[in-house]
Amino acid sequence: MSLMILLMALAIFGSYGCKQKEGKMTAKQIPLEDFFKNPEKSGYQLSPDGKYFSFMAPYMRRMNIFVQEIGKDSAIRLTSDTARDISGYFWGNNNRILYLKDTGGDENYKLYGVNLDGSNLVALTDFPGVRTEVIDDLPDIDEFVIVGLNKRDPKVFDPYRLNINTGELTMLAENPGNIQAWFTDHDGKLRMASAIVDGVNTSLLYRNTEADEFKTILTTSFKETLAPQFFTFDNKNFYASSNLNRDKMVIVEFDPNTAKEVKVLYENPDYDVEGLSFSRARKVLTTARYTSWKVERHFFDKEIESIFNKVKKQLGDYEISIGSANKAEDKFIIRTYSDKSLGTYYLYDKTSDKLTKIADVSPWIDETNMANQTPVEFKSRDGLTIHGYLTLPKGYTVENARNLPVVVNPHGGPWYRDTWGFNPEIQFLANRGYAVFQMNFRGSTGYGKKFWESSFKQWGKAMQDDITDGVNWLVEKGIADKDRIAIYGGSYGGYATLAGITLTPDLYAAAVDYVGVSNLFTFMKTIPPYWKPMLDMMYEMVGDPVKDSLLMRESSPVFHVDKIKAPLFIAQGANDPRVNKDESDQMVKALKDRGIEVEYMVKDNEGHGFQNEENQFDFYRAMEKFLGSHLMKKEEIKK
User: Fold this and answer.
1) Which of 67, 132, 236, 563 could bridge across to 125 with cysteines, CB 3.0–4.6 Å?
2) 292 has catalytic annotation
3) Would you call 608 a catalytic residue per the annotation?
4) Are strands 480-490 and 404-408 parallel, antiparallel or unpaired?
5) Is the pLDDT of residue 18 over 50?
């Protein structure tokens, strides 16, 4: 089983009218805050009995949990956190909600519980410096959940059964030091685990009952993936995403006793199929999901397909997702979205076949004034097809856009991918007059094993060439003004930003690095302790500091600051556990040692990307001013 998904944790994560006049476009700016302020309401979920829905909404500028009885107009606020947004939540039972929250972006999440009336709010995993991961929310067991905690050893997570009322913990197994994921069956029994063997191979461990010992049933290179999704409904076999003996991920049924595939349930010739859903009430598979330029579905179940088609017909051209359901699965939360809208939540009642609007996510966003996110593709210098997205300022098309200022926006990860949908950063930049270019360079997920592996030890090499080739493609098409191109990214995208202005210094007129890696040697030394078991894999994917020292030095921007010509703005969270603050500090120092000024923003209460609303405002306000001063002509700066 591959641990690529764990390595992907490197990733990070507004109205105006337009008119054409003498070939130029004039437009009124949408306030910056409209793009980046907290949603009005989001994260809707149904209670197990279907009597209530819960949601997240701002309180004192922080996202907190509210609950509302269906059919009533008023909601009750259950939490009152003012320092940090709640990171996520779920229903523990009909009377209790559980949620995760960290401190200042340190990602050491604690699990809290609160009753439906706001009483008995307690931290259930209140251990300093310990991270909580939810293994199984046990929806059919009211008093317990299964969590992973690294309190015994910071490098590994042990599974515990947790009483959500009292906080009592019972260890279910002791992690021997190499297990990276635990899996339960439909009865909440701990039955499988994935472990690292010899640093770069992974094994799948299995047992028939919790009284049995775990036994290894399959060992593969980490380059191959057998990712369990969930057990079959008789708890004997399991469903998985697999690229064993093939390039693309497919959905299979796997027999753990024979360690063989039983059958392939769904495959796509062009894209990895990674998601699988089921009906807990009816015990049937419902959908498989993959991403082309947008999310696509294959339906196994006629009932869910019928609901999906009925709802989509009523809601028009929007994409929709079927989210939370109650235990009886006669009520569903439906959400719409598009590239120009964060969408709307609806309640669908299957019994009455009625769709009722609940709330818009960000009602101040007028989607008619947003820009289209258009899928594009180009060829890399070595012949790979690179897919991406081009967002042009409102009023422009690929046919009439000429010599625009461009912001190139490489994604984080790097083993991640850009997708189609509303992105406030992209829409903000387009509203300010920039074309925004995103590309899924080699190593991006969803395009198969070969495409992913082609990124190994290619930081600053072929991966960066793909970005460069995309920029040159945009210039050749006449869309980009070659003298007004900036690069901006976060996490790996921040690294690609720094690599862009050091390895191709004449390509960019300005750069914004957001929590990016600058030194591959120090980056490897400062990863979180729970990534340590994966270090050998990272050596193979990024580079070994000893064996590949020359390559890593060549690819570390901090050693090439003498080549920088473009002005640079750096933003960093002081508590970042993934890309240590030293990555930005040493880049700033290297520049200042050469007498080069660099704009540097540090937020002491943030981690890997800014979460607090006011910090986002500060960052994007500074970025807007920075880009405007270096990319915009005087007549293009909007008042």
Assistant:
1) 132
2) no
3) yes
4) parallel
5) no
Given a cut of 80, whether residue 161 has pLDDT beyond it is yes
Dig out the tokens for 609 from the structure: 């990307």
Q: CA-CA distance, 195 to 181, in Å (whole number)? A: 7
Quick one: pLDDT at residue 150? 97
Q: Are residues 495 and 619 in the same domain?
A: yes
pLDDT tens digits, one per residue of 283-320: 999 999 999 999 999 999 999 999 999 999 999 889 99
Contact between 29 and 16 (Cβ < 8 Å): yes
Kindly tell me if the per-residue pLDDT of 35 is higher than 80: yes
The residues, ordered by sequence, that sit 6+ positions from 173 with a Cβ below 8 Å of its Cβ are 158, 159, 182, 190, 193, 214
Rounded CA gap, 456 and 443, in Å? 8
Which residue from 161, 180, 182 is spatially nearest to 170, judged by alpha carbons? 161
- Please report, for residues 284, 506, 600, the alpha-carbon distance to residue 2 in angstroms, rounded to integers and kept in the order given: 27, 39, 37
Residue 569: which of 428, 388, 407, 450 has the closest Cα? 407
Q: Active-site residue among 491, 518, 556, 584?
A: 491
Active site residue 491: yes
Report the SS3 class of residue 520: helix
443 Cβ contact partners less than 8 Å away, ≥ 6 residues apart: 413, 414, 415, 451, 452, 454, 455, 456, 458, 463
Handedness of CA 532, 535, 538, 539 (dihedral sign): positive
Whether 2 is covered by a domain: the verdict is no
Looking at residue 372, what DSSP letter applies?
A: P
Task: From 237, 256, 291, give the residue that closes a domain.
Answer: 291
Rounded Cα–Cα distance for residues 497 and 500 (Å): 5
| 217: in domain | yes
Rounded CA-CA distance 364/361 in Å is 9
> How far apart are the C-alpha atoms of 115 and 462, rounded to whole Å?
53
CATH of the domain at 619: 3.40.50.1820
Token representation of residue 479: 């869309």
List 89's β-bridge partners, or say none. 99
User: Is the whole model's pTM more than 0.90, yes or no?
Assistant: yes
- The boundaries of the domain holding residue 469 are 373-636
> What does the alpha-carbon distance between residue 276 and residue 268 come to, in Å, rounded to a whole number?
14
**Tally of structural domains, the chain:** 2
DSSP of 23-69, one letter per residue?
TEEEEPPPPHHHHHSPPSSEEEEE-TTSSEEEEEEEETTEEEEEEEE
Residue 128 lies in a domain: no
